[in-house]
Inverse folding.
């Protein structure tokens, strides 16, 4: 091969999406729900594919089980340390077998790979998760995330690999069906779905809820709001553990409301990025005007607006007097979602740094859809800021994980609200919680002394919130667990009794595994990984894998073509429609086309993108030659197009950017009788394994490994490559030559 063909992006399989539909079957008993999600995949193409779907789950979801139904056979997944699970999956794919890998990408974000689904095959992937819900005031919010709105920032910097990065589409028309059964006392509660039109049917002590019309497009989260029945009290559950009993006590303390007496310093931080357009920014404007009216003369305040940049209304917090309130009201008249991207980090840092009056602890109310990638950085910064963050997530597909973690790590609280939930009223209600005292000195007394409690330290509890505590007890609990907390009125307490949870006979059961999951954040990495494997939990340290071994004649002969499953663009995102129970009326959207890849070896321009300069990764002279080789190698083997190694000569390596000194040394191997194609493959293996090629995509690695097996590249050649590259490195250190 003397030249490299330019890669041209063309649709394969008529643009068919492998995911055909999703079914959700859920049961809510008290504050615990169990949800089974069935994803149906079908390969409508003429070649084997790998379907990859990155999707959200509730932040509190604990994955319990993964099964695959393929060609009449049902296979069950196994939880392993992440590196082992991925190795098993990759080995299966390279051997031509079918496999599934389920991985947690970030808190609340998962990715599933369905590999080597053959032409015409249909697969049903089922996973089950359990979740503990919380009362917020007098309501409980049951929600099933269905889509991911576009997020601002660099997903790679947030730890996502290229194949895990989600994509969005206006034409992703796969839908979902939902059947929810509410059992027990909550079956008689008032319920309503602000997101979807639903059908309800009461049967004895159960309430059955389903989507009207059977299915709905996955363009917004499903939300069901349950109102707390009269005289509803906290509850406790217990179940058998391996060595004793695990118990759950769920308290809902009713703290007395207090009239505000101390002056406050309130910093209002408002998302004005394009993703907030439409109803979200309109409702936010109304809420902010009402909040300004609620401020007292001895309060201090400031407002930060942010998008691609940020603006503080005042350099520092100012008294809430008539002059300053008037200035703020005048600014809000022109409040629009017209500030571009979502540079949340810099806006928060500027707000933290704006100070506060001496003797007054600052509180921050953040209103945003949270659609950014930099979760870990933002959460760590919030915990160091000296501010309590009260977050309000607005929109039809809110990033729950970020907003919950910001609030919980700073001692604040979080509230999520969709456009049909009286958004302005909910924002104002959450603002009022800032003035309510949090309980910080509480303790729990179990019926018998627990061997272990999780969490060991009880965080701040606000009026109307729920507190979940797990206890490992030596025997079945007899009596009640008691929560005690001290207020100005004296010692207050709340008690809950226990009932046995109907659980599986297999140990550990659902409750024990949820209890184990609650401990993970308090353990070091090694202990957390061991506990996750023992209790079969998918975490940041573990993944779930299953392999379907195929007969020799049925194995895939090629590397699977990668097919990402795109998300339907969230309803109302960027002002692109109204959100109601029935339809979404989208405006016509004109997109400027990105330049097609004209040549695999050219560095693409990013000028057509509205992306900050610091996120643009281009070869501006600061990029090393090894990075250039990685970039060109990945572009040459674009997953949708290329499934075989496109380079087979040393001149091809040189065109990739491999330096002349390395090429000269590799030429010695030609004189020793090795073919150039074998040398190229052996060198690429060295490049990937040495760490120089750490950015080589998973797809390219598969192609290289497949080519290695096809040609039978032996250990002798690999050793020779190692020796030559060691020799090359010695020249580098002696300044006689340059390696990369």
């Amino acid at each position: 091969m003397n030249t490299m063909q330019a890669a041209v992006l063309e649709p394969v399989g008529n643009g068919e999406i492998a995911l055909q539909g999703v079914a959700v079957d859920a049961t809510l008993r008290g504050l615990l729900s169990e949800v089974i999600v069935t994803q149906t995949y079908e390969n409508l193409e003429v070649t084997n594919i790998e379907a990859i779907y990155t999707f959200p789950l509730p932040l509190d979801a604990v994955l319990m089980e993964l099964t695959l139904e393929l060609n009449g056979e049902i296979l069950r997944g196994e939880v392993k340390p992440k590196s082992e699970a991925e190795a098993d999956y990759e080995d299966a794919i390279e051997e031509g077998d079918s496999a599934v890998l389920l991985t947690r990408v970030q808190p609340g974000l998962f990715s599933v790979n369905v590999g080597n689904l053959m032409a015409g095959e249909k697969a049903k992937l089922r996973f089950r998760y359990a979740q503990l819900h919380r009362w917020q005031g007098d309501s409980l919010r049951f929600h099933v995330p269905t889509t991911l709105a576009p997020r601002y920032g660099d997903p790679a910097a947030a730890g996502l690999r290229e194949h895990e990065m989600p994509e969005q589409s206006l034409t992703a028309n796969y839908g979902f069906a939902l059947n929810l059964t509410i059992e027990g006392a909550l079956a008689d509660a008032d319920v309503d779905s602000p997101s979807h039109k639903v059908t309800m049917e009461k049967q004895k002590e159960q309430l059955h809820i389903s989507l009207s019309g059977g299915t709905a497009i996955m363009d917004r989260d499903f939300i069901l709001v349950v109102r707390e029945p009269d005289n509803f009290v906290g509850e406790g559950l217990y179940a058998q553990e391996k060595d004793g009993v695990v118990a759950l006590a769920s308290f809902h303390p009713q703290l007395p409301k207090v009239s505000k007496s101390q002056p406050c310093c309130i910093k209002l931080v408002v998302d004005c990025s394009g993703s907030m357009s439409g109803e979200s920014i309109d409702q936010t404007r109304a809420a902010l005007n009402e909040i300004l009216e609620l401020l007292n003369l001895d309060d201090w305040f400031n407002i930060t607006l942010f998008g691609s940049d940020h603006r503080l209304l005042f350099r520092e917090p100012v008294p809430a007097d008539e002059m300053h309130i008037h200035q703020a009201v005048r600014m809000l008249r022109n409040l629009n979602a017209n500030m571009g991207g979502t540079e949340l980090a810099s806006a928060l840092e500027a707000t933290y740094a704006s100070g506060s009056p001496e003797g007054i602890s600052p509180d921050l109310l953040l209103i945003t859809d949270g659609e950014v990638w930099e979760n870990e950085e933002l959460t760590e910064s919030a915990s160091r800021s000296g501010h309590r963050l009260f977050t309000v997530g607005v929109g039809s597909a809110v990033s729950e994980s970020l907003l919950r973690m910001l609030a919980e790590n700073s001692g604040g609280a979080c509230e999520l609200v969709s456009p049909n939930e009286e958004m302005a009223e909910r924002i104002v209600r959450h603002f009022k919680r800032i003035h309510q005292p949090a309980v910080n000195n509480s303790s729990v007394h179990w019926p018998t002394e627990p061997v272990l409690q999780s969490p060991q330290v009880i965080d701040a509890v606000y009026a109307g919130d729920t507190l979940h505590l797990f206890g490992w007890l030596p025997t079945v609990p007899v009596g009640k667990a008691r929560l005690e907390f001290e207020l100005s009125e004296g010692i207050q307490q709340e008690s809950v009794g226990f009932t046995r949870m109907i659980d599986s006979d297999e140990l550990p059961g659902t409750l024990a595994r949820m209890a184990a999951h609650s401990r993970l954040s308090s353990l070091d990495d090694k202990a957390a990984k061991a506990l996750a494997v023992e209790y079969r939990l998918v975490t940041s340290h573990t993944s779930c894998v299953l392999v379907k071994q195929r007969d020799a004649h049925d194995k895939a002969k090629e590397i699977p073509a990668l097919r990402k499953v795109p998300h339907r663009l969230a309803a109302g995102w960027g002002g692109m429609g109204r959100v109601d129970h029935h339809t979404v009326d989208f405006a016509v959207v004109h997109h400027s086309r990105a330049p097609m890849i004209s040549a695999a070896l050219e560095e693409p321009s990013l000028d057509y993108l509205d992306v900050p300069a610091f996120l643009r990764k281009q070869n501006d002279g600061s990029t090393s030659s090894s990075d250039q080789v990685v970039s060109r190698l990945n572009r040459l083997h674009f997953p949708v197009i290329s499934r075989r190694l496109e380079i087979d000569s040393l001149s091809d390596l040189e065109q990739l950017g491999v330096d002349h000194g390395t090429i000269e040394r590799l030429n010695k191997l030609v004189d020793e009788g090795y073919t150039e194609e074998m040398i190229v493959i052996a060198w690429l293996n060295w490049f990937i394994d040495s760490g120089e090629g750490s950015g080589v995509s998973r797809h390219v690695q598969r192609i290289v490994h497949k080519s290695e097996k096809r040609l039978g590249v032996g250990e002798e050649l690999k050793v020779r490559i190692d020796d030559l590259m060691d020799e090359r490195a010695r020249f580098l250190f002696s300044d006689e030559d340059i390696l990369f």
Observations:
- The mean pLDDT is 85.
- The first strand starts at residue 19 and ends at 29.
- The two ends are 24 Å apart (CA to CA).
